Amino acid sequence: MSQPPTSNSKDKLVHFDMRGSVAVIRLSRPAKRNALSDKLIFALRDVFQNLPAEARAAVIHGEGEHFCAGLDLSELQERDAGAGVHHSRSWHNALTQVQEGPVPVIAALHGAVVGGGLELASACHIRVADETTFFALPEGTRGIFVGGGGSVRIPKLIGVARMTDMMLTGRVYNAADGERVGLAQYLVPAGTALDKALALATQIATNAPLTNYALMHALPRIAEQSADHGFFTEALMASIAQATPEAKERVRAFLEGKAAKVQKG
């Protein structure tokens, strides 16, 4: 089975494997609590730019006791303003490959989801947190600012006021409160986030690929559009999705009683 060319053959910061049609990506700096370095971020970018054709969904998780404890401050370099902008934009590009790549991405969260770790999690489409998870944005108390897209993505999950509070005060959300405010969609027992994420990814991988693509790419754009523009974009996307042979076959199967009906959860 094919694997994307990545930098993990050199530094082992990101491990990749396929489990059926699900790409599984593991952050592998456990001694550093999977803190983000440029090498790790760019290895992650390379994985998502080169996913195998058979991948239909992806899961990101962290090795060891934490998902990701944020930016590796030991690698923080002094940069002038121009260099800082270019560096931040390189991280934007990398995390955009996660958010706007070819397949839905589920983050399996445990332990620290802090700073850049939360920025990475917010670039995923679904977040599963286990009971050990905690969320924080300590940049405000360290004299810096988020630079990996967090100021755009995180307020869309929890609102500007909550993010402002987290950065001004250093507030830490535990797993239950994080799920309540929208930092995660699922809360599961300790040690089971990866299993749940894999189960969700396996289910998502059975959807029609164009429907998944529309949910990843059209839905966020519709949310940013005026109602009139959003309705029109929706109409275009709906007509394209339902015109595919796979969609027609799935509707036919449902009408003929061959597809499962929605059951009460």
Structure described in brief:
The protein is α/β, with parallel strands linked by helices and 265 residues long. The chain has eleven helices and nine strands.
Structure description:
This protein is an alpha/beta fold and 265 residues long. It has two domains: 8-204, Alpha-Beta Complex (2-enoyl-CoA Hydratase, Chain A, domain 1), CATH 3.90.226.10; 209-255, Lyase 2-enoyl-coa Hydratase, Chain  A, domain 2 (Orthogonal Bundle). The chain is 47% helix and 15% strand. It has helices spanning 8-11, 38-49, 81-99, 116-123, 150-158, 160-169, 175-181, 193-204, 209-224, 227-242, 245-255, and strands at 14-19, 22-27, 57-62, 105-109, 112-114, 126-130, 134-136, 172-174, 186-188. The strands form two sheets. The protein has a six-stranded mixed beta sheet with strand order 1-2-3-4-6-9, sandwiched between helices. It has a three-stranded mixed beta sheet with strand order 5-7-8. β3 (57-62), α3 and β4 form a beta-alpha-beta unit. α2 (38-49) runs parallel beside α3 (81-99), α4 (116-123) packs across α5 and α9 (209-224) runs antiparallel to α10. The longest helix has 19 residues, at 81-99. The radius of gyration is 19 Å and the shape is globular.
